[in-house]
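Final report, Chapter 2: Outcomes

The project's central promise was a pipeline that accepts a single protein chain and returns its three-dimensional structure in a standardized token representation, suitable for archiving and comparison. That pipeline is now operational. To close this chapter, we reproduce one record exactly as it appears in the project archive, with the input sequence first and the structure output second.
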Amino acid sequence: MSIVAARDLAASYGRTPVWEGATFDLEPGAFVAVLGPNGAGKSTLFRLLLGLMHPAQGSLTVLGEVPHRGNPTIGYVPQRRPIDAEVRLRGSEFVKLGLTGHRWGVGGPRSRRAAAAEVAAALATAGATAYGDRAMGSLSGGELQRLTLAQAIVSHPRLLLLDEPFSNLDLRNQVAGAQLFARLAAERGIAVLLIAHDVNPLLAMLDQVMYVARGQITLGSPAEVITSARLSALYETQVEVLRDSRGRLFVVGLEEEASHPHAHDDDCHEHGAGHPVAAEEGSLDLC
């Protein structure tokens, strides 16, 4: 059974459409990058999957069920938020909230031991064991990101949603993170959806690319989707995709695109609503 199944799916905010006609399946073990200009509707897709909003049209299921809030089969890593330096919550306590945050009571000794073992395993998987006994307010952005990932996977989700997890990380940590996400997908048979600005650190590990642009969602392999012909069709303007000797992708022709009309997504807020960004500094920066 597919992890996610969408049929003629449409999203809107009131009477303003975001995208429509989306039909796709996400299979177990798939590592998928979600690309597209600011305001195109990438975060809107995540909201639908998390049950935070309802489709305007069509159908959407996660593991055969209509999405609903608090679904334990979905792990979610939001965009990085600053943590007050005064916060004394330990890393392991933060991760444990992924197991107990939706339940009342503390459980008996046996359940506490089991929870501690699950937390330790999640910390190890995320490479965050060293941060388990440290106060959240004392950690760097990259360290907090690893703890957030540990919290997202501690309940053994079937679908993992990652909203720009590479923000403010250097290239080495981006590649290491991509390798970790690909391994999680392959070893646990989960579907991983990752919203990214720069696809280059991911290319070697990706199974598919989901491109959200101009009211459409396109899903396929990187070779199928990141092409001059496909992007030109999506943007309805001439776009050229180039690859250098190191395998890095460059996209030429988006910098003069007009603003995207749908500026309701959270991914507009940081960068300004609806401005497609051309590749810069050797990377494919397609928001």
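Archive annotation: Residues 103-108, 256-287 have pLDDT under 50 and may be disordered.
This record, like all others produced under the grant, will remain available to the consortium after the project formally closes.
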